[in-house]
Amino acid sequence: MGTLSYTGFLWKSSNLHGLHSPFIYAFASKGIYAKHAPRPQKNIALPIGMTREGAALLYRIIASFKISKMFVLGKDATAVTELLRAAGDAANTKPWFFSPLAPIPGGFDLAYLNADTTEDLLNLYRQASPNVNENSVIIVPAIHSNQEAEAAWEAIKKEPGVTVSADTYHLGFLFVKSGRPKQHFYIRQNDGALLNAVLGIRNLWGLLG
Questions:
Q1: Phi/psi of residue 134, nearest 5 degrees
Q2: Other CB atoms closer than 10 Å to residue 177's CB: what's the count?
Q3: DSSP conformational letter for 20
Q4: Do residues 172 and 154 make contact, with C-beta atoms less than 8 angstroms apart?
């Protein structure tokens, strides 16, 4: 089985109005679809697994939620840290980076987990989880880059602490929200009228099928 294509992702995805969860609706409206957020400079170096679309979304999330306490684990950590620092500086959130060797006071705002295999990604999540709180955002990049990445993404969604996950194709988001059932969402960043109209046909077919 091949990896999920972007077209296949779009066919599964929802825009803001298809999100029937108050929490994820608020996250998407404030973050994913944020207006007037800083954007990465064209010449900025991107870490392994990060696309230009993913970097732009990362900037929106950091600016919209005033993220400052960050936790970077996994491969290409130096480049990831520099990208997050640039995003925090652009949003004036005064970014701070914490080591996995010591507790983070109050938990982290954002953790970025970058791994090649399921085992490695789960190990990174378990390193991060002692410092998670109800408002923490956990980001996994390149979740559809290959079959192993997709398998790792499916596995981490099943971790006992993870209750809400959101697939934006370029980035995966995980949340630990106590008292919630597990929910998974496909959320497209492109919310144009033409695309919404085309994908609306999918919903009509579903009703007629």
A1: -65, -20
A2: 16
A3: -
A4: no
Count other Cβ atoms within 10 Å, centred on residue 83.
23
Pairwise CA distance, residues 172 & 177, whole Å? 16
Place of tokens 């620092």: 85
Task: Give the pLDDT band of residue 167 (cuts 50, 70, 90).
Answer: very high
CA distance 11 to 200: 10
Phi, psi for residue 116 in degrees, rounded to 5: -95, -25
Enter the tokens of residue 95.
């970014």
112 in Cβ contact with 80 (< 8 Å)? yes
* Residue type at position 155: A
Both tokens of residue 175? 């949340």
Q: Decide the pairing of beta strands 69-74 and 164-167.
A: unpaired
pLDDT one-digit tens code per residue, 67-120 = 999 999 999 999 999 999 999 999 999 999 998 888 899 999 999 999 999 999
Given a cut of 70, whether residue 209 has pLDDT beyond it is no
Show the DSSP H helices in the chain as ranges.
6-12, 22-27, 52-64, 77-91, 118-128, 147-157, 193-208
